[in-house]
Amino acid sequence: MPEDTVTNDGDAPRVVVAGETLIDFLPDREGSLRDVESFTRRPGGAPANVAVGLSHLDETPAFSTRVSDDPFGDFLVETLVEAGLDTELIERDAEAKTSLAFVALGEEADRGFSFYRDRTADTRMEVGGVPDATLAAAEWVHVGGVTLTDEPAREATYDLMRRARDAGATVSFDPNARPELWDEFDYGDSVATAFGLADVVKATPEDLAELDYEGDPADIARDIAEEGPHTVFLTLGGEGSLAATTPASPWAGEGEESVVSHGGYEVDPVDTTGAGDAFTAGIVAALVDGETLSESLEFANAVAAVTTTAAGAMTALPDREAVRAFRESES
Fold it and tell me: Where would I find the Carbohydrate kinase PfkB domain in this sequence (predicted)?
């Protein structure tokens, strides 16, 4: 377990991200996995994608994760280091394997997943993986829902959210629904608990399909805000995204409830894997930099749009120059 110190020469990261890092296997063709003959290995995991996305956007976070001490784990750690992330909070597990996810691609570059994640390293993340000193220096802490499916990672995630709020950081949560992973705990109850611990929620309609949120996206966002978060982002695929705020949100206009939206960008998608994580990285980077809610939505949508034009999740994440060039071409 990491010691309770910050070891980055005093230049503490403003953002902390915690959660799973795994291997995505991308198919050589569209359609059912039954018909796929070969796959390409890519690094993945929603929080890992967010962490690398932030690093590409010049907001390198502290990233807490746990991977196996196997060849896949070696590959993932090397990838994270190449992306500029520190290894201080990356734990190696010699008693568990690295999680694997096989991706199926649809005709519109939509994707489905088949996971091999039974007691793998990321399910064994432990309480205290992020030191108090790191949280004390952080402005923002982001976690996802996949680590809520198994203990001890489940309690480690909730504990981190509680300690981050106590430390004064903004806490964001992405439910990232993966139905086949939920067999030990109830998805709805687990997400409701996380909503109550989060200041900011980022979700998709698909994430909320098994919950009791229905109707217009703006109304859904307002309903989620009633569970505790003061700001809710919904990504809507080709229709862009929206943000709903309560009067408690630091981004609410004049301390009032508000809904802000952006229609997104038209692109020819190659692979939508990781687009939501790219959006999250864009939102966090923009808001930590002091951008307005409208500016942040526009920027985050651009980051996500660029990501869909290349294969893979982590490997497709753009830097600021690529995002700037894309926005200039769109304008």
Answer: 14-319
